[in-house]
Design a protein that fits this description.
With 123 residues, the protein is mainly alpha-helical. It has one domain. It is built from 6 helices and no strands.
Length: 123
């Protein structure tokens, strides 16, 4: 299933925060926010980095590991409709990773409201 594996690698790398993908935008914003906080958050930064590494190792085993189940060996690669849907999702992942401004602009009012409520309740 080489086409499926290619899509899975792209989405797994986006999930780990590869630059140029949508996951990087979120990871970058979280890292920036964690560095602005007190030094007590160092353990969270370390754990987040370790989690990304474990995710990459698990993804490698799932994609390139040997299957023991006969039912999994009988699976066929993606058909045309599945390729179209996954291509659209892959393009969305790449577009948001390269140009996140429209998405961040839409989220800005709700984020400001949430922050103002957190400040008001002293969270």
């Amino acid at each position: 299933m080489p086409v499926f594996a290619a899509f899975m690698v792209l989405f797994a790398l986006a999930n780990t925060g590869l630059p140029g993908t949508s996951g990087f935008v979120g990871e970058f914003l979280v890292i920036i926010a964690s560095f602005r906080r007190a030094s007590g958050t160092r353990c969270w930064r370390r754990d987040a980095g370790a989690g990304r590494g474990l995710h990459a190792v698990a993804g490698k085993r799932v994609i390139f590991g040997r299957s023991r189940a006969r039912a999994l060996r009988a699976l066929e690669d993606l058909n045309g409709r599945e390729c179209i849907v996954l291509t659209a999702l892959a393009l969305a992942v790449l577009v948001v990773g390269v140009w996140p401004a429209p998405l961040l602009k839409v989220m800005q009012p709700s984020i400001q409201h949430m922050v103002s409520q957190a400040i008001a309740t002293k969270l």
